[in-house]
Amino acid sequence: MRDFSVGMNTSKESSASTFNGYAALGLLVVAVAAVFWSIVSFDAATSGPVHGFALILGGIAALLILPGFFMIQPNQGRVITLFGAYRGTDRTTGLRWIWPWMGRTKVSVRANNVHSERVKINDLRGNPVEIACNVVWRVADTAQAVFDVDDYREFVNIQIEAALRTVGARHPYDDMSEEDETTLRGSADVINAELQAELNDRLKVAGIVVDEAGLTHLAYAPEIAGAMLRRQQAEAVIAARAKLVLGAVSMVQMALDKLSADGIVNLDDERRAAMVSNLMVVLVGDRDTQPVVNTGTLYQ
């Protein structure tokens, strides 16, 4: 387990104090109306200081209120700062308002889907393989995503490649031995779960959670693909031959037992061996056999 937070202050998301934007919009309408009334009804002869105060206060209020509006859509948040200091995150959807001198950074907390580039790595046995994955991730802590890493999206892309290399190097591409071990090709569920855990461990410093991760491409590198294909074909032929031989031996045994049990013919050891040889050739051979009719005795 790695801990990227050693030596730095880890941020933590908290709720920000913002205001209802519709209430602020009502105040803005009042301020604009006061300014408009002051201008329309102004008369140098009859107007008193009320018009001047209404014009000044209405203008200042409008200038303060207007820049403070912002909109938050579903599954979005705004990180609020005051002169560089974190003041919380607002996740309340709709029209919101805050003092105009406070900073607002928009952060999406929606699920993101990333398909990585193909990466060439060496598996546990040193064979070069090409591997790629698909990752579904989202921001869980907006403060960490904004303040603890420089660019959290680029950080995710780099860590995906690093996690692919780490997980791919832990296991062989395929099982070349008789042992039942985890392989990249034959243990998809295990590899995907391990990749997801590796990514969550790497991305927790940025406040990011991986909901799903899985391999989308897995193949030997082109320089060894031909040799590995021939090896797989040889293994398939060997497995088929082994199964065929086992079946042929069972059939020969059944035939000899049946002949002896029914008393059809009694064979000595030499003739039994010859019959076994002939039956095995017929059952295991790749080509059709040509029968030979024996017109003499059994021993000629």
TrEMBL record:
Annotated membrane topology: Single-pass membrane protein
Gene3D superfamilies in UniProt: Band 7 domain (3.30.479.30)
Domain of life, per lineage: Bacteria
Every Band domain range: 67-236
CDD domains cross-referenced by the UniProt entry: SPFH_like_u2 (cd03402)
Keyword Membrane: yes
Listed InterPro entries: Band_7, Band_7/SPFH_dom_sf
Record's signal peptide: none
Keywords in alphabetical order: Membrane, Transmembrane, Transmembrane helix
Transmembrane segments: 21-40, 52-72
Cellular localization per UniProt: Membrane
Name this polypeptide is given: SPFH domain-containing protein
Naturally occurring in which organism (per UniProt): Alteraurantiacibacter palmitatis
